[in-house]
UniProtKB/TrEMBL annotation:
The lineage of its organism: Bacteria, Bacillati, Actinomycetota, Actinomycetes, Micromonosporales. It holds the Pfam family DUF1980_C. Residues 64-84 are annotated as: Disordered. This is Membrane protein. InterPro entries: DUF1980 (IPR015402), DUF1980_C (IPR048447), UPF0703_membrane_permease (IPR052955). The gene is ycgQ. It comes from Polymorphospora rubra.
């Protein structure tokens, strides 16, 4: 790979990062707050690529008077006749470019949730504010699970809540409600899991997004992956919904 080819690859990579950053595609890879950094990285890659191309393609002084030996030097050959090649590993940069341009992988879902233990213990808080106004109160799967386990359901008592997540398979094969959370990017995604009792959905395929309404129950089960507690929600009603723009929560 010569310098011009390297610049073209950088240009494509930077353009791909910018394309993902200016659409919702980037939300499948990183947290929403990292968008400015992605845009800055994409712009930097494009600028470096353009400057490299301009520098390499501009006319050079004395080029017209140079003989064949000089031309050989320009193409990466030394005076001994031995060829000099740039590392071929540079072509591996094409892989993420093609991934961003041609493939739109889905966000992490039920398969990833089944392979990892619930991450609830790492999200413990010392205190919990009152639930939002409204009936039902719209909260996240993480918020409900934290209050149910670490607050003993005290801040949930007497309230109806509304949660949104995707269906996954629980330890005993029963459906559970899950939502993936990120520390930074999809590579460190971990699930928050909820059991569903009462009027729980039955027969839905994995990765189906649903909105459930229900209340607190002290029932818990153990996650077989890491031994952590998984709280339950007493479901009163549910409905299928489209996947949200931000699937990590």
């Amino acid at each position: 790979m010569n310098r011009q080819a390297q610049a073209v690859v950088l240009l494509l990579l930077g353009g791909s990062v910018l394309k993902a950053s200016f659409t919702d595609m980037y939300l499948r890879y990183v947290k929403e707050g990292l968008r400015p950094f992605l845009i800055a990285s994409g712009v930097l890659l494009v600028v470096v690529a353009v400057m490299t191309l301009l520098h390499d393609l501009r006319p050079r002084r004395g080029a017209a008077a140079a003989g064949p030996a000089h031309e050989d030097d320009d193409h990466g050959h030394d005076h001994g006749g031995k060829g000099h090649h740039e590392p071929r590993v540079g072509w591996l940069l094409i892989a993420p470019v093609l991934g961003l341009l041609l493939v739109a992988p889905p966000a992490l879902g039920s398969f990833a949730a089944g392979q990892a233990g619930t991450a609830l213990s790492s999200q413990r808080a010392d205190s919990y504010p009152p639930l939002p106004d409204g009936d039902p109160a719209k909260i996240s799967v993480l918020d409900y699970a934290s209050r149910a386990i670490f607050d003993g359901g005290a801040s949930l008592a007497g309230r109806t809540v509304q949660l949104t997540g995707f269906v996954a398979e629980g330890p005993g094969g029963e459906p559970i409600l899950a939502r993936m959370i990120l520390a930074c990017c999809a590579a460190d995604g971990r699930p928050i899991k909820l059991g569903m009792s009462g009027n729980a959905p039955v027969g839905l395929p994995a990765d189906t997004w649903i909105e459930v309404v229900g209340g607190y129950t002290d029932r818990v089960m153990t996650d077989p992956v890491n031994g952590e507690d998984i709280p339950y929600l007493q479901v009163e009603s549910w409905r299928q919904v489209d996947p949200p723009k931000q699937q990590y929560g």
